Amino acid sequence: MNTANASRRRVVITGIGAVTPVGNTAPDTWAALIAGRSGIGRITRFDPTGCTAHIAGEVKNFDPARALPAVLHPRGAEGEPLTQALTLKDLKKFGRFTHLGASAAVEAYADSGLDAHRATLSPDRMGVNLGVGLGGLPEMEAMHDTLKSGGFRKISPFFIIQIAPNLLAGQVSLLLDFRGPNMSVASACATSGHALGEAAASIARGDADVMIAGGAESTVTPLAIGAFAQMRALSTRNEAPEQASRPYDRDRDGFVLSEGSVVFVLEERAQALQRGAKIYAELCGYGASADAFHLSSLAPGAEGSARAMRAALVRAELAPTAIDYVSAHATSTPGGDCEEAAAIANVFAENKTDLHVSGVKSMTGHLLGGAGAMGAFAAVLAIRHGIIPPTINLSNLDPECVATGLNFTANTAVAKPVRAALANSFGFGGTNASLVFAKG
Q1: pLDDT by residue (tens digit) across 245-286?
Q2: Would you name the residues annotated as active-site residues?
Q3: What single-letter DSSP state applies at residue 401?
């Protein structure tokens, strides 16, 4: 963020956590992205026979009650230590999106190094903004079956806690003793992009010094898969799951539904520097807009998306030429990819030849409420490591995308210094979020 705006508190990222179809931790997820490894496979959570789509991005070999690598003390040395994100007893109490999100949030908190400084930090100045798009859909489906077969007395007393989207934020605040702003954003596939932007705004305006922010989703269920399939939104490349998500490719046929969570620790920059924190990047710009055009399709030329990108750049006080990488929304849908590409080409017309664009959904699939944070993850770590993750399965670039003149980072990661990056996320309802990150 430009220091000329002295009235605005600067926001940096000091911790990252992730549980995704390509890795159960942030380092494992990043390693998979830069290696170009897909996390898409045949659905195992239920039998998809009879549905046109048989594939999804499932989180694999995940134990939400696993012991933490190191014991944490969020309530100080005299308080009860934290040895795992969730206990075995907790698993019955919460929905799967909370299992995923709490694990990612605790990883991010541990990564931030804040735990060693809790004696000097006020919990009232530490908050949570974790977005969830659809909430506890698997638990809704299961409890509906229970009600039908067993009647009212068989309904679990934990059902509401399992399904309410804000219970993830509530549980994380309880686990980590964060007593500041606590909320949950729900804006479809832009959810966690908005959560990050609004959390940064909480710090910038002085409501908090630390915010845990990001998103989670777990809706690989018969109802969700079936509903998206009925909309003809999902890929039916069932015979080759790892090749099914192929943003910008001429032969793409829809997105792949996935589950997972990505969470960040955002912190006021002066405080982070004072305590000697590791700084991944600065979150210096946020733009939000509405298409006001269609409930499930981007506006022509992704006009609303372009406005969100320009707003984020204005907030960051950066020219488009300062951006080296765009982590695109890029869902692998026939219409959306080219519309977004046209908007990117329009916004970055002056530096198209030097700009890299990629869509990590080609590897992870679409995390819905977690998608914005997943895109931000790629942008932040590209800045940190000087590596741009690829768009895999890009064999035949769509002619409309060719016409944009953009470099879509086909199939192989690119080593390149990244000064600043922009991450997009868009959602049903015509809602858009763009985030700008820069070296901190």
Answers
A1: 999 999 999 999 999 999 999 999 999 999 999 999 999 999
A2: 189, 329, 366
A3: H
Looking at the fold, whether 274 and 142 belong to one and the same domain comes out as yes
Q: β-strands 182-183, 210-217: how paired?
A: unpaired
Name residue 305's amino acid: S
Q: 427 with 282: CB under 8 angstroms?
A: no
290 and 369 in a common domain: yes
Residue whose entry in the numeric block shows the structure tokens 């829809």: 254
Q: What is the pLDDT of residues 192-211, one digit of tens each?
A: 999 999 999 999 999 999 99
What residue numbers bound the domain in which 62 lies?
A: 11-281
Is position 3 within any domain? no
**Are 102 and 85 contacting, i.e. CB atoms less than 8 angstroms apart?**
yes
Query: How many other CB atoms sit within 10 Å of the CB of residue 415?
Result: 9
104-137 exposure pattern, b = at least 16 Cβ within 10 A, e = fewer: bbbbbbbbbbbbeebeeeebebbbbbbbbbbbbb
Predicted TM-score (pTM) above 0.85: yes
Q: How far is 368 from 173, CA to CA, in rounded Å?
A: 23
Question: Does some domain include residue 1?
Answer: no
